[in-house]
Every structure is written in structure tokens, then in C-alpha cells.
TrEMBL record:
GO terms for molecular function: metal ion binding. InterPro entries: Metalloenz_LuxS/M16. It comes from the Eukaryota. This is Candidate secreted effector. It comes from Meloidogyne incognita.
């Protein structure tokens, strides 16, 4: 059964799957991973937070840059929130070590989310 979303005009069968292009002659690899953002629309109260988080992660010398680019795992990394599509897209460009670049990006995002949860809990303790 195909899961089709008429709003975004796309199917969600491959969402979360990883598409990678490995070019051994150039010793580089490229990765694109899309994840679906649930309850995401321009009217949602979560939209601004998602966009700010994605932009923070995406800035040069930001968390993804420091953990993926500076160690030399990849040349460039980006995280984009597409509200109209309802997706969050991670892209890794020209990876010398694709597995390490992906693991560093994933761990960076996990650590950031955990730290945000801890911060919110501390700020709103009664």
C-alpha cells in the first residue's frame, strides 16, 4: 500500500531512507536523508522552533559544521526544514568518510535534543 500525501504531492514510502552516491574515483561520497516532520504546517506552533533549530544546526561553524566538517569527514553539511513539504533534510557533501560523517551528524542532533530537553526541564522546575 502506498502512503500518498495530497498536500505535499508525494509518497512517504521511502522517507527516512538514505540515498548515497559513492564515487570511488574521486574518493568522495554524497548523502541525502529526508525525515518527515509530523504535525508540521505554517499554522503549527512547532514550526518556528523547527526552523530555528534547523538553521542553528546549519550555520557555518555551528554544531554540524564542527562535528562533521572540522574533523575532515565531509566538505560540507546542511540541515534544511521544508515546511511546505513537511520534511527535514540532512545533506552531506564530498565525504571522505561517509559512515563517520553520518554518525557524527546523527550524534550531534541527538546530543542537541537531549541538551534542549534538560535545559527546558531546568528552566521550568517549580
Amino acid at each position: 500500500m502506498t502512503s500518498y500525501d495530497a498536500v505535499t504531492n508525494q509518497t512517504w514510502n521511502n522517507i527516512g531512507s538514505i540515498k548515497a552516491i559513492i564515487t570511488p574515483s574521486l574518493e568522495g561520497a554524497y548523502l541525502i536523508r529526508k525525515s518527515r516532520i509530523t504535525e508540521c504546517s505554517w499554522n503549527s506552533d512547532k514550526t518556528a522552533a523547527i526552523m530555528i533549530l534547523a538553521k542553528y544546526m546549519d550555520i557555518e561553524s555551528g554544531p554540524l559544521w564542527e562535528n562533521c566538517r572540522e574533523p575532515g569527514f565531509c566538505y560540507s553539511v546542511s540541515l534544511t526544514a521544508e515546511i511546505d513539504e513537511g520534511t527535514l533534510t540532512l545533506e552531506l557533501y564530498d565525504c571522505s568518510d561517509l559512515k563517520s560523517a553520518f554518525n557524527a551528524a546523527r550524534q550531534t542532533m541527538v546530543d542537541l535534543i537531549i541538551n534542549l530537553i534538560l535545559l527546558v526541564n531546568r528552566l521550568f522546575e517549580f
